[in-house]
Amino acid sequence: MLPISSAQNPTIKLIRSLSDKKGRREAGLFVAEGLTMLERAEDLGWEPAYLVATKPVRMFDGVKPFIITEKLMAELSAQNNPHDVLGVFPQRWQPHPAKAGNWLALEEIRDPGNLGTIIRTADAASAAGIILVGDCCDPYAAECVRASTGSIFAVPVTRMPQQSFIDFLKAWPGDSVATRMDAKQDFRRPYQAPSLVVMGSEARGLSDSISSACKVKVRIPMKSGVESLNVATAAALLLYQLS
């Protein structure tokens, strides 16, 4: 059988639509590229809705790959050097965060590369999951998935409106920890488990309404003249302080 070469193929058109946030939202799907990424998905029990490759592959029992031309794969890929295989997976949103383990909440984070790096770090630090608060970037965007290096398949992600999250904070059984530049306490301190670290956006930081609902407020000390840390770096410091 000849490989698919037409961009008008219905499956190919669907996959192309997933490069857009609206397309991902309507389909409830996302794309992950590369053998290493897909092996992580398989190990964690995910199954693709579609498997697309430029040559036959043996992955995901019972899932037959669509074989396409390298030219068409280059058109589908979000990378400069396309992989030989990609998978299309159903999105998974945790319905509500469990009040156990250490969680990280991010208010209105907008950079998908930062979010993907944070997901990767949360996985490495054995965090229970991530809560996206308010208007955040899409964790299933190609840049975020790529930056997560497969941890998007391992870390539960949930989303909450700001007011719902404030109500959730009030009932959190352990320490809820707001990170703020003007906080008095150093982040290098013990915390009562389960801990929930709350961080703000790259541009504006954490809102006063959410910060006020947290039990503990901490800062990361920095040399005079340094404006701030990248949010992914700050998240790594806090998550490893908890672990």
Helix content: 25-40%
Number of separate helices: 9
Quaternary structure type: single chain
SSE order, as H and E? Answer: HHEHEEHEEHEHEHEEEHEH
Low-confidence runs (pLDDT<50, min 5 residues)? Answer: none
Tally of separate domains: 2
For the sheet with most strands, the description reads: 7 strands, parallel
> Can you name the CATH architecture of the largest domain?
3-Layer(aba) Sandwich
Q: What is the strand tally?
A: 11
The CATH topology of the largest domain corresponds to: Alpha/beta knot
Mean pLDDT over the full residue set: 94
CATH H-tier superfamily of the largest domain: SPOUT methyltransferase, trefoil knot domain
What is the highest CATH level, the class of the largest domain? Alpha Beta
Radius of gyration: 20 Å
Major β-sheet strand ordering: 7-6-5-10-8-11-9
How would you explain this protein's 3D organization?
The protein has 243 residues and is an alpha/beta fold. The chain folds into two domains: 10-90, 60s Ribosomal Protein L30, Chain: A; 103-242, Alpha/beta knot (3-Layer(aba) Sandwich), CATH 3.40.1280. It has helices at residues 10-17, 21-27, 35-43, 70-76, 112-124, 142-148, 162-170, 208-213, 231-242, and strands at 29-33, 50-53, 66-67, 85-90, 103-107, 129-133, 157-160, 176-179, 185-186, 196-199, 216-219. Helix 5 (112-124) packs parallel to helix 6 and helix 5 runs parallel beside helix 9. The longest helix is centred in the middle third of the chain and has 13 residues, at 112-124. The termini are far apart.
